[in-house]
């Protein structure tokens, strides 16, 4: 048995946990990081699949993500811009592929006018919402008691406009049907990125990538921690009280500490037996948080053939199986990579198929954007985070309908010596690595202040 005594035990070695651990160590506090997986990085994961480097998890960096950008620079990592030269593709209700440039899809004039009006309305509402306290908005309860789908339908009867605007929150971000979450949850998602217009602008929200993969952030931060990181060590029991915590992990590891940070998705809190149990408020709140569901599809070709057609690789289709896709070619790679996404109910459906049937259906959808050559990749891989034992979905947890105004103010509330830090409870940078880093920094600062009191 390994028995360790530290100031802080951190559960989870993703960006939040490794950030918090490094900040605590710099302040002179001792730490132990317990990670359930056999790797660090959490929902960032770069791997070699059939000879191709794929970013299986999170990967993009946008210009508003100050905490992530600072960390990347401090670690000496390099970034490069996503390929975006040429025209994009949109497939609407007519099923035809339309080439276009700019941010607004090539739809009928009345649909375009409805979309622009919705974007303007949402930008006004989003500007009123503090992403750190959306529940504090004077109309929070009202906004949390109407689904995003119903709110869109109240603003316009143009169904294609509704579906296109819903796409940017439901399919692309929360990965849940727009009828499954509230207007308030949608406003939080947009406010976390600065505006709804930022979500519509893929050149902003999907701006850059890290050379070698975004997982390197956690890898480099973990390297600085050395032997204080323990892999394959899921915490099974966490005893807590006025005197601190005792964490019992696989591998006969026991850590006694003054404080604990749970630096992982809220849907995994239930995997830990708390002694004594967490308070009723936390039990109820955690039942109203759930992950979305999306398949990230990687298709690698001998060359980026779509560029020969004058295409950027960017594609959207609210009625397609793969509702969005991008050129995801690695830095200085001669081969070309497309990444597509299949979310919420569409993802449910394809997992009723065999692996080969699912692959054929998804590649068929990609071919609607790029032509038949898209059906024949040299490497094909599906990132299925819903099947990951220590993740259970993607990209992050969000509240069910009506849950945000009821419970949101307590998602970060410490329980005795137990503190919480992950992208799922961030304001700015919510559900992104940037948010994870912000939360890691925030909780570390809180514990440093407590330790010095």
Automatic annotation (TrEMBL):
The keyword Oxidoreductase applies. Gene3D superfamilies: FAD/NAD(P)-binding domain. One of its GO terms (molecular function) is oxidoreductase activity. Its cofactor is FAD. Residues 16-448 form the Amine oxidase domain. InterPro entries: Amino_oxidase, FAD/NAD-bd_sf, Flavin_amine_oxidase, Flavin_MAO. Belongs to the flavin monoamine oxidase family. The keyword tRNA-binding does not apply. Keywords: Oxidoreductase. Pfam families: Amino_oxidase. FAD binds at residues 35-36, 235. Substrate binds at residue 341. This is FAD-dependent oxidoreductase.
């Amino acid at each position: 048995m390994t028995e360790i005594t530290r100031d802080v035990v951190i559960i989870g070695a993703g960006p939040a946990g490794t950030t918090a651990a490094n900040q605590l160590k710099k302040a002179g506090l001792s730490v132990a990081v317990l990670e359930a997986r056999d790797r660090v990085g959490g929902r960032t994961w770069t791997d070699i699949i059939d000879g191709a480097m794929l970013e299986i998890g999170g990967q993009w960096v946008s210009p508003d993500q100050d905490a992530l950008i600072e960390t990347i620079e401090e670690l000496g990592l390099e970034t490069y811009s996503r390929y975006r030269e040429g025209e994009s593709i949109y497939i609407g209700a007519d099923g035809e592929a339309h080439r276009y440039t700019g941010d607004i899809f090539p739809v009928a004039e009345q649909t375009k006018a409805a979309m622009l009006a919705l974007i303007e309305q949402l930008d006004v509402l989003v500007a009123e919402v503090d992403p750190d306290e959306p529940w504090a908005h004077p109309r929070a309860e009202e906004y949390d008691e109407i689904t995003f789908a119903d709110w869109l339908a109240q603003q316009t009867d143009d169904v294609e406009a509704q579906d296109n605007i819903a796409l940017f929150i439901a399919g692309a971000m929360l990965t849940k049907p727009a009828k499954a979450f509230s207007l308030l949850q949608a406003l939080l998602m947009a406010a976390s990125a600065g505006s709804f217009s930022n979500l519509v602008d893929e050149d902003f929200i999907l701006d850059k990538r890290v050379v070698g993969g975004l997982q390197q952030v956690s890898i480099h931060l973990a390297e600085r921690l050395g032997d204080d990181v323990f892999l394959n060590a899921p915490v099974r029991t966490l005893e807590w009280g006025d005197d601190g915590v005792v964490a019992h992990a696989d591998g006969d590891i026991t850590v006694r500490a003054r404080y604990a940070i749970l630096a992982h998705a809220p849907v995994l809190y239930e995997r830990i037996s708390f002694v004594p149990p967490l308070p009723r408020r936390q039990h109820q709140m955690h039942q109203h948080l759930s992950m979305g569901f999306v398949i990230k599809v990687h298709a690698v070709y001998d060359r980026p053939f779509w560029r020969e057609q004058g295409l950027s690789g960017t594609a959207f289709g609210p009625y397609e199986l793969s509702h969005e896709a991008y050129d995801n070619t690695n830095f200085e790679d001669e081969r070309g990579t497309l990444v597509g996404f299949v979310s919420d109910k569409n993802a449910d459906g394809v997992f009723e198929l065999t692996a080969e049937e699912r692959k054929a259906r998804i590649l068929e959808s990609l071919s609607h954007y790029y032509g038949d050559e898209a059906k024949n990749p040299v490497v094909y891989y599906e990132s299925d985070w819903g099947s990951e034992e220590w993740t259970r979905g993607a990209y992050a947890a969000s509240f069910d309908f009506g849950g945000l105004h009821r419970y949101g103010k307590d998602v970060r509330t410490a329980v005795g010596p137990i503190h919480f830090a992950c992208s799922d409870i961030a304001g700015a940078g919510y559900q992104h690595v940037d948010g994870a880093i912000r939360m890691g920094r925030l909780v570390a600062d809180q514990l440093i202040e407590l330790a010095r009191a």
